Structures are given as C-alpha cells and as structure tokens.
Amino acid sequence: MDPTSQPISQKVTKISGTVTPPRSPLPYPFPFHIIPTYTTTQSPPLLLNIMQHPLKHHLTLTLLALILLSHFPPASPVTPCRTVCGTTAINYPFSIDDGCGAPQYRSMLNCTGTELFFMTTSGRYKVQSIDYNKQTMVVYDPAMSTCSILQPHHDFVITDVESVVIPPSSDTVFALLNCSIDSPVLNRYKNLCFNFSGHSCDELYGGCNAFRVFLSFTNSSPPCCFTGYDTVKYMSMNILDCSHYTSFINVDGLKGIGPADWVYGMKLSYAVPDTGCGRCTRSGGACGYDTETGVMMCLCSTSMNATRECAAGSNGDIGSGQKLALRTKFHAFALVVGAFIYFVIFI
Fold first, then answer.
1. Are the beta carbons of 203 and 196 closer than 8 angstroms?
2. Into how many domains does the chain fold?
C-alpha cells in the first residue's frame, strides 16, 4: 500500500496550524493555506516536556554547556609571566614581571617597548644579549665613552646584592683614561693595573678618535690603567682621579686586534638558583615567587599557583594551590549536575 494513502491519524497527531503561501509542495490532503505541525505520538516525556516549554529548553541547554565547560580543562595553561621583550627571550631566573623568575633578580630588568634594560643605581644599561647556556648577559651603557665617542664621565655602580648574584665576568676589562699622576692606581694600588693579550692602554689614545683629544693637552700620553671590576666597585671615578672610563669584553680573543674593533660593553655572569624550577616548567608552569615572602612558587595561570608544579607528578605530589583548585572544580561540577537534575525532575 502507498504510505501516502494511509490515514493521517494513524501516523501523526495534529498540534497546530499556520498560514502559508498557497503554492505549498506538501503531499497531504489538507487545504493549501493550512500547514499542520506534527509530533510523534511516542515522544519521550522529557523531550515532550522540553518542546512544550521553550524557556526550559534554553535553560537546559545552558546547564548542559556549563557541565561540559566545568568538566574539560583549557587546552593549555596561560601563565602570568611574559617570556620575551623585543627579540630577547626572558627565561628563569630573569623576569620583567613582578613575582616571576627568581627573587634575587627582582626588578633588575625593565622592558620599554621592544628594548630590554638592566637597571642599576647608576643608570639603565641596554641588554644586547643573554646566553642562557653560558649564563652571561652582555649590557651596554649608552652614556659610556667608546673608541668612537667621548661622553661625560660617570660611575658604574651596582648594589651589593647585584655585585654578588650578577657581577661583571673576568673577561670584562675597564680602561681608566686621562688619569692624574696622583691617581691611587698609579701609586699605592698600581698592582691593580695590567696589560692583556699584548695590549697596553696607551693604544687607546692613538687608535681611537674619541680619545686622541687627550694627546693635545700634553706632550705624552696621559696615564691610564687597564683594571678589573673590583677596582671600580670600591673606588669611584673621583677617587681614582681619572676623567673617563670605558669597558670591553671577550679580551682573551683580542690579540692582534686594534681598539677600533673591540666589543665595548660589559659581560655579566650569573648563577641559576637550584629551586626545582625545571619540574615546574616541565608541567607547563612558570617559575616565580610570592612577592611578600619571597617563597618559590610555580605559576600555573593568572588564577592558580602551586608550590612545585602545575600537574600531578609521578609520586602524586601536588601543591596546595593545585589541590584547592581541584577541590573547587569538583564542587562546582557537582553543584551544576545537582541543579540540572532538580530542574529536569521538579520544574
């Protein structure tokens, strides 16, 4: 038998009708200006209840969405620590955000636009590079004299903490220029001066345009001194009685190279504190610390921190912040499920 010839009442139940254009393609034997809306006679009670109450239908879908969102975690953690400034990577132990990195290096770096600066009490030194394998940072003082430019003199000063955790490396040499004959490094402390790689400080006067001006004041080269960081650490330029200074790095590789081709700046060396940071980063977090107590923390997101790592380790050791977040998530999930069941059954 043709299914279209069966009585309509045996297949569907008419609920309501709406007016439509007269050219309806429906095959049913109803007037063209009426289109019936049907539902199966065997609809489950819950589905029929939802269809009869559109508001309940929308609320039910909303509750289902909340359940799904509370059950599945985000695809990847978002840590509160920036990891780059311009083209320079910012990794542990350094940071440009308070509470990130190691507390010993707090507020040492500042990111201005795309430029990274090493902050000291004597000024801002532009960071040229950071080598995380060799644990060195090369900085440059824009106000320091070099072979090509003569600048007003000033001291290089870092705090006692900085001089311990990130001092200039041994292959950074300071040149004290245009010194008085009464300078302590030419008398009592002359043992602080040295030559390196076959170079003497007199070469700076003849090989650098910026320093050649000092030759016009005397018939001979004015006294100068190659020395290490400890000299300028304990004696200011006024005590040293020298008008200018400059510094350069990688001195062991400068044999046979003139001062015009030296690399001017300072190389700082640092050590990475052993605080278990590797465990934190492997779990997707960023190493940081409590800004009030200085205690190491694993920063997992902008709203959740753990004491050691962001995810459970092989031994099940989870930080207190992680445990609190898991308990909160479970309680929220249970609350949503309970509300959904109550809504479906009793409303």
1. no
2. 2
